[in-house]
Design a protein that fits this description.
The complex is a heterodimer of chains A (112) and B (118). The radius of gyration of chain A is 13 Å and the shape is globular. Chain A has 112 residues and is an all-beta fold. In chain A, 36% of the residues are buried. In chain A, 0% of the residues lie in helices and 54% in strands. Chain A contains no helices and eleven strands. With 118 residues, chain B is mostly beta strands. Chain B has no helices and eleven strands. In chain B, strands 2, 4, 5, 6, 9, 10 and 11 form a seven-stranded mixed sheet that branches. In chain B, strands 1-3-8-7 form a four-stranded antiparallel sheet, with no helix packed on it. In chain B, a hairpin with a 5-residue loop joins strand 4 and strand 5.
Chain lengths: 112, 118
């Protein structure tokens, strides 16, 4: 079945260090979304990428959609303690255009 | 804008009882709402899709008689866990897509309900 994997599963960085999470889909995606879930909280939408090779930036966050539209990455420059949480990528399901399949997630811990 | 609420935020119930969880879109209409289940340190697993005015569609492996979904209006969907057992203990999250969103797949999530069955 359709799978979306993320690596690493977990990363612990010192505040100020950079962080990158990679998302790989078993199928081509029409778009990819990224969500952040703080500990004990719910997923919050960050961004959606649609075009092949697209790069979008939100302050210290840089999102990229692969040329083949099967992978994506999220890079955080100079992490802060407020970046702590789990980052999920998500793409449309093959069955049901409104449904999303979520990646396995990358849990980020930032030490001050 | 695009706020989704869930009630209750936490519930503890005894094995064999039923629990109802409400999901409301507060400032938009949602023809479609989704119910997810999340175990600790794991990803979100879609349980079912709730469509206003029609029956919910369930993902493979999800018992429709155990997880009853009703989407009575464009702003409210409910999930009832019937005859709950300890293995049903989990974090249940709903999400909604605003009506007329077109090709945007963005979903707005509720704060979640933590269910503990004793």
């Amino acid at each position: 079945g359709q799978q979306v994997m993320q690596i690493p599963q977990y990363q612990h960085v010192q505040e100020g260090e950079d962080f990158t999470t990679y998302c790989n889909s078993s199928t081509t995606l029409s778009n990819i979304q990224w969500y952040k879930q703080r500990p004990g909280g719910h997923p919050v939408f960050l961004i959606q990428l649609v075009k092949s090779g697209e790069v979008k930036k939100q302050k210290r966050l840089t999102f990229q959609f692969g040329e083949a539209k099967k992978n994506s990455s999220l890079h955080i420059t100079a992490t802060q303690t407020t970046d702590v949480g789990t980052y999920f990528c998500a793409g449309p399901r093959n069955t049901g255009f409104q449904k999303l399949v979520f990646g396995t997630g990358t849990r980020l811990l930032v030490s001050p | 804008g695009a706020v989704v609420s869930q009630h209750p935020s936490r519930v503890i119930c005894k094995s064999g009882t039923s629990v109802k969880i409400e999901c409301r879109s507060l400032d938009f209409q949602a023809t479609t709402m989704f119910w997810y289940r999340q175990f600790p340190k794991q990803s979100l697993m879609l349980m079912a899709t709730s469509n206003e005015g029609s029956k919910a569609t369930y993902e493979q492996g999800v018992e429709k008689d155990k997880f009853l979904i009703n989407h009575a209006s464009l702003t409210l969907s409910t999930l009832t866990v019937t005859s709950a057992h300890p293995e049903d203990s989990s974090f249940y999250i709903c999400s909604a897509r605003p009506r007329g969103q077109g090709l945007t797949y963005e979903q707005y999530f509720g704060p979640g309900t933590r269910l503990t069955v004793t």
